[in-house]
Amino acid sequence: MRTFTPEEQDFILRHQQHDVAQLMLQASRYPQLPVQELVQQIKARQKAVQKLPTWVQHPQAVFPVALSVEQSSSEETAAYKASLVRGKLLVDLTGGFGVDSLYFARSFAQVVHVEQNQELQEVARYNFGLLGAANIQSINTTAEDFLQTMEGKADVLYLDPARRGHHEQKLHLLQDCEPDVLHLLPLLFQKADAILLKTSPMLDIEQALQELAQVVQVWVVALQNEVKEVLYLLQPAAPAPADVPRTAVNLLPNAAPQLLTFTRAQEEAANPIYADPLAYVYEPNAAILKAGAYRFLGQHLQLSKLHPNSHLYTSAQLLPHFPGRSFRCLDVSRYNKKELLKHLPEKKANITVRNFPESVADIRRKTGIKEGGHTYLFFTTDRHQKPVVLICGKV
Predict the structure, then answer these.
(1) Most buried among 254, 265, 329, 368, by the most CB within 10 A?
(2) How many C-beta neighbours within 10 Å does residue 186 have?
């Protein structure tokens, strides 16, 4: 594996925040340095600043090609995953850059990092040494070959199958990803009694529960209201899909995660109450919406829904700590340009569409309302099947 000289490391660190295109144009100023190679390191570090600060802050850390950084977990989601399982031995069968392995190493006595790409595996192993992760063993092989020769059993096998095809198209069906978890399931259960699987947020949860069959817990993990991954814990004795607990997790900076746990059976049994917009309006976080807690959420928190398909909630009194965004409802308007602009002297507003026949772009084009300001407009459908606009301010 290629490591960098002190002079090369100094170049990377001094230019870490510089424009990489400009650096390439100035390459002739540094004839003694492989500028193109160093710029690739700078580019990867720039992509990783928010996502992987532990690596970026270490001056000697080596980064793979940018795509590997983009595909890796963030440190926040990796830390959350590591809090879900613990034991003596975890095998990360799709190790990649090693972010998940590093955090699992804090919950397990030993972690085996398996990566089929030799260059990426060497980079990960080198960084593990820099970051003091002495309990990680890194092996260059495929998940399938490792399992065939593995002796004994692990406490947990972890997989994050590759979700890009040969032409870099994004994939999300389990059978299209590499390795094919559905094909490997019998072998996986020979080697461990628990399997933690990370999938694309695009994969339908109900479909995954049916295909995997042995799921005991699901986590939908969002980072600052953007769903990043869905996790499935598989064990030999699993409940029926309708009784599998699913937890919606929204990770927030400098705050406790927003959590909601329910089952599909609870969702189907819930009896929502519908009402016209009251003093406060609530929009659930993205993890709750992906997990499918539409009816259960309102009943659980004693909130009324505006419409079966709008997934907006309302109450007369403010509900503190709602898992999402909370607004004071200032007025309710028809979808009429003149009427709306009366509330917007600067012709600016933040627009959200929920169960409404037009897109945000269409609404902005027709009304001339620009993005920004402190007013929030929810274009939705009320319980009387009428299109309405809720004029709101952030709580």
Answers:
(1) 329
(2) 7
